[in-house]
Amino acid sequence: MVVIVIAVLVIAVRDSDESTTPAPSTATTAKTSQDQTQAPQGERADLISFQLDDRSEAGFANIWLAWTIKNSSSAKSDYSWEWEAVDASGTRLENGSQWETDVQPGQTTRGQYPTTLKTVKGIKLNITSFNRTASY
After folding, report:
1. Which residues, other chains included, contact 102 with Cβ-Cβ below 8 Å and sequence gap of 6+?
2. Confidence band for 39, pLDDT divided at 50, 70 and 90
3. Distance from C-alpha of 67 to C-alpha of 112, rounded to nearest angstrom
4. Coil, strand or helix at 106
5. Which one of 11, 18, 90, 95 has the minimum C-beta count within 10 Å?
6. Would you call 10 helix, strand, or coil by DSSP?
7. Residues 77 and 132: beta-carbon distance below 8 Å
8. What is the maximum span of the chain, computed from C-alpha positions, in angstroms?
């Protein structure tokens, strides 16, 4: 039993991506070759989009996170990731963790979560950690 737990922890740690990267979005923008970044590789590429969704009305802020994940592996998977929202000056305004569980191979899932942000103007989302693990 102990050996199995240790093996799962070693695999989970080895497969994690701890680099901070801009969050993917569904918006397409023209970029110069200097501004282009490589597409995420491996498990991180399963996070197809992660963006802010501004649902504010009548002067009341109502900003949500919205994401889409597609399981590109051959096994049922759980996903967890850490994120941060920073303003144009680099100040972190909010951060958190999100999870999606039991995503079947080839399956796409969408999620959403409320934030305390007051605006989306000038806000950049970064993924600070991303993990895909086998779901049991």
Report:
1. 76, 78, 135
2. very low
3. 6
4. coil
5. 90
6. helix
7. yes
8. 57
Model-wide pTM > 0.90: no
For residues 70 and 107, is the Cβ–Cβ distance under 8 A? yes
The whole-angstrom separation of Cα 51 and Cα 64 is 8
Q: Return d(Cα 125, Cα 13) in angstroms, integer.
A: 24
Q: Which two tokens stand for residue 83?
A: 């994120």
Query: Per-residue pLDDT tens for 87-132?
Result: 999 999 999 999 999 999 999 999 999 999 999 999 999 999 999 9
SS (H, E, C) 19-74: CCEECCCCCCCCCCCCCCCCCCCHHHHHEEEEEEEECCECCECCEEEEEEEECCCC
What's the CA gap between 71 and 61, in Å, rounded?
A: 33
30 HSE (CA, 13 A, CB side): 0
